[in-house]
């Protein structure tokens, strides 16, 4: 991603999204990996961007139909160049208002993965399992000129420090649920074995809300109701 590419935002989507992430509200998508497993996936989820694109698109569209305004690319565990390009095309085809690059915060080749997803409006670094991992991921992603969101899979995370490092939003995803979610900008928690309605009632409030493992369109609809 060249300097010119980093700055290019012809329709202003990146600027609009940055402000929504920093101070506004946003409805996020639900689980991709577990949804694909339920559809027959064995192995790496990004491989289905090439072999089963209609299945990946169907999951995105289910989330958008439930109210999601932003979807994450199917690239969490890392993708090759062809898989990354396909992930971005498929996410765009979902008709979501915004598309963000989903990347595990602990990827060794994080910068290369970001380069492959040129055209996203945001970098979404997920499932940081330690404060050190979260801090390192934000620092490594901050040079790309895109809004950076970081979510942590731990009971207590240094959210204020992550925002001070440049993250436009910080919070929690997956498991365990946080001990105290009051300081979180974003919550994207797992289904925790709960049915959709019970899960929607149990999730704490945050400005940016969505779901993680095993959350479906029904979970999102209950959350956004």
The ordered H/E elements are HHEHHHEHEHEHEHEEHEH
The helix content is: 40-55%
- If you average the pLDDT, what whole number results? 95
State the low-pLDDT regions, or none: 1-8
Number of helices: 11
Structural class call reads alpha/beta
- Distance from N terminus to C terminus (CA atoms, Å) equals 39 Å
Rounded radius of gyration (Å)? 16 Å
**Amount of beta strand:** 15-25%
Query: Which word captures the global form?
Result: globular
Strand order of the largest sheet: 1-8-7-6-5-4-3-2
Number of strands: 8
Describe the protein in words:
By secondary structure, the protein is α/β, with parallel strands linked by helices. It is built from eleven helices and eight strands. β5, α9 and β6 (169-174) form a beta-alpha-beta unit. Residues 1-8 have low confidence and may be disordered.
Which helices and strands, and how do they pair?
Layout lengths: L2 H5 L5 H11 L2 E2 L5 H6 L9 H4 L1 H13 L4 E3 L8 H13 L4 E7 L5 H7 L5 E7 L2 H11 L6 E5 L6 H6 L4 E6 L11 E4 L6 H7 L5 E4 L5 H8 L1
Parallel strand pairs: 1-8, 2-3, 3-4, 4-5, 5-6, 6-7, 7-8
Helix pairs in contact: 5-6, 10-11
Tag the structure with descriptive keywords:
8-stranded parallel beta sheet, 225 residues, 17% strand, alpha/beta, single chain, disordered N terminus
């Amino acid at each position: 991603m060249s300097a010119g590419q980093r700055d290019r935002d012809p329709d202003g989507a990146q600027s609009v999204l940055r402000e929504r992430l920093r101070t506004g509200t946003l409805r996020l998508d639900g689980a991709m990996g577990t949804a694909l497993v339920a559809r027959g996936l064995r192995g790496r989820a990004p491989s289905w961007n090439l072999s089963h694109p209609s299945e990946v698109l169907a999951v995105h569209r289910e989330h958008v139909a439930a109210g999601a305004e932003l979807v994450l690319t199917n690239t969490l565990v890392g993708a090759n160049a062809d898989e990354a390009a396909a992930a971005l095309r498929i996410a765009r085809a979902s008709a979501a208002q915004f598309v963000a690059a989903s990347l595990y915060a602990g990827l060794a080749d994080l910068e290369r993965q970001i380069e492959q997803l040129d055209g996203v409006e945001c970098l979404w670094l997920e499932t940081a399992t330690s404060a050190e991992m979260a801090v390192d991921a934000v620092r490594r992603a901050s040079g790309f000129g895109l809004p950076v969101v970081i979510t942590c899979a731990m009971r207590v995370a240094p959210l204020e420090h992550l925002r001070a490092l440049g993250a436009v939003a910080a919070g929690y995803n997956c498991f365990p649920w946080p001990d105290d979610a009051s300081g979180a900008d974003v919550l994207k928690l797992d289904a925790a074995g709960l049915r959709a309605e019970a899960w929607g009632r149990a999730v704490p409030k945050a400005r940016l809300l969505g779901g993680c493992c095993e959350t479906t369109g029904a979970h999102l609809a209950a959350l956004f109701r």
